[in-house]
Amino acid sequence: MGKGKVQTEEIEENRSKKQNIYPSAVLLVEACYQDYQRIQDNYNKLYEKINVALAFAGVILTIVLGTLDFSHAAVKISGQPLWKIVLMILELLCTVGSVLLIMVSVLWLLMLLKGRMVKVFKSEDIRNNKIYKEEEENAAVWLIDKYTQVTFAMRTIVKKKQKSFDQALQIIIIGIIMYAVSIVLQKGGI
């Protein structure tokens, strides 16, 4: 009776050791997957915003280029008061600067669309590394590691592209403001 009791205790002890290696890993896999999905969704939304901003910048550039009029700059400068000449030069600088800034932003947005590198989780690694033979907790820990690696890499890419997108939008806004100033100078200043 003493020997059977010792074996039962050893079996129970081994069973509890195996069961409590990573008890919450199975629950955390879902959280890691959701984080991965959220990053992927942010990445896709960023590309949608880039496309919208590119279309907007293209329309603005078309409008600006269609309304360019330098004919009043060809007016004889001699005999004009100095303040009119300064305003005319300022208008020309704002117009040309606006066109250049909007063109730069369009090129910038196109470059953002070019490099769509996405770090992904390779599901064939499950087969290649025979993860399916592991216990559920060990497989969950493996999945957590893979999701964490991919999510970290994606977060870095999204952050970098978002910053670049924000800068391109700022350039577009500055270009629009410069164009508005040139219109005001053309219509009311000279």
Name a few traits of the molecule.
mainly alpha, 5 helices, 80% helix
What does it look like?
With 190 residues, the chain is mostly helical. The protein has one domain (23-189). The chain has 5 helices and no strands. It has helices spanning 2-19, 25-66, 82-114, 124-128, 136-189. The radius of gyration is 31 Å and the shape is rod-shaped. The model is unreliable at 1-8 (pLDDT under 50).
Shape: rod-shaped
Distance from N terminus to C terminus (CA atoms, Å) equals: 111 Å
Percent of residues in helices comes to over 70%
Low-confidence stretches: 1-8
Major sheet summary line: none
Order of helices and strands: HHHHH
Strand and helix layout:
Layout: H1 2-19, H2 25-66, H3 82-114, H4 124-128, H5 136-189
Helix pairs in contact: 2-3, 2-5, 3-5
Summarize the structure.
This protein has 190 residues and is mainly alpha-helical. It is 80% helix and 0% strand. The chain has helices spanning 2-19, 25-66, 82-114, 124-128, 136-189.
